[in-house]
Amino acid sequence: MTLELRVLTGGRAGEVRRFTEDTVLVGRAEGAHLRLDPVHDLHVSAQHARLVRRADDWWVVDLGSRNGTWLNGQRVEEPVPLRPGMRVRLGWEGPELEILGPGGSRGDDLGRLARRNRLLLGGLALLMVALVTVVGMNLRARNSARSAWMQERAALVARTDSLMQLSSDMRDRLEGEVAGLADALDASRVQAAQLQADLARLGDEAGDPEELARLEERLRTATAALETQQIAASLDAASLTARVRPAVALIYVEFEDGERSVATGFAISTDGRVVTNRHVVAGPAGTNRAVRLGVQFSGSPQVWPAELVRTDEASDLALLDVRNLLGGNPAVPGINTRADTLAAGSPVLLLGFPFASPTGESEDGLLPRALSTAGVIRGRAAGRLEIQGWGAEGASGSPVFDGTGQVAGVLFGASGVDDERYLVAVPASALLAFIAGDD
Hints:
Blueprint (H helix, E strand, L loop, with lengths): L2 E5 L8 E4 L3 E5 L6 E2 L13 E6 L2 E6 L6 E3 L2 E2 L4 E2 L5 E4 L5 E6 L5 H14 L3 H51 L6 H24 L4 H25 L3 H8 L3 E8 L4 E8 L5 E5 H5 L7 E8 L6 E9 L4 E6 L24 E6 L18 E11 L2 E7 L8 E3 L5 E9 L6 E6 H9 L3
Parallel strand pairs: 3-4
Antiparallel strand pairs: 1-2, 1-11, 3-5, 5-6, 6-9, 7-8, 7-10, 10-11, 12-13, 12-15, 13-14, 14-17, 15-16, 16-17, 18-19, 18-21, 19-20, 20-23, 21-22, 22-23
Helix pairs in contact: 2-3, 2-4, 3-4
């Protein structure tokens, strides 16, 4: 029994899908029967929900998704039967699906169909007319579907061509400004070009429809990746980095057991107040004790001694006080706590020291300079800011800047696996609350 549904909102809005399988996996993971947009539908988990046929009914089952599955506004806690007209939302703010049919028991419809068939079998002439009519309708429907598919494919290819040309222009401008993003754009353009060639070849050869559909889905994913990378590249990285880099600092830590480590921090005021992560000064387990702390601002030869003011375990933040400063120090322009300006898809810039040596020595003898990496806000979950980034992940404590140069978050780690891996940061609201606790 075929399940038919329409995608109402999100990156796949407008699509109508039909499934003949008994189980339909819904999510952002590659291989899902109904794969939502892996870049734009960020509220959808990799394996979010499952639509299951049981006898003559279809049921929706949540797979422990991060943001939940909702049916007609009610959260799905247990398997729930579906009926035509019902709406399934993947995450409270995620894409919405409308069940078109059959969705539920079809016993009455089957009975009516059986009675109709008995009447048709009463006359051979009527049956032949019906068969000819059905064949003609199927041929017209097939030709119409083929035409619609060709139009959709042409639109996808045209969109990909435009993005590839734009990414080529951006790549030349990014060279040397943002670590990793230029290479990511190159890789995405090569992948999109190869998928386009494969899709054109199979289309010309009237290849396997399932293989064509898989290639088309992969091209959609590659095109979405290009689009997201170009959002990240839209920041004026050169001027933004020049403004905020002086406030970013290399943090040196020596623990009581003699172990040494380095991380990133940034000045929130011109009188030596510097923020970093708690685990930087207390170790991953939070039980170590730092006996010496040093702060070296980006591009500066001077390493200043520092003292630990306080830490907060919940937000994983630490506040340091730089000692013996002469004339003050550069500080970040401000902290952005307005979530409405930091929605999913907003470009951000990260500055940190991912490759610094615990001794402070560099192979080329140059002064340490904070490295710029680009990213796009992926979403928010469990009080954390999630970022899709390109290039080095960056040292703990790296500030995350919005397009105005204000701090949007503080990097403290990474999460996910393989192509689902992303950076995780303390949001600006938690940072401001932590700073306010020192007043």
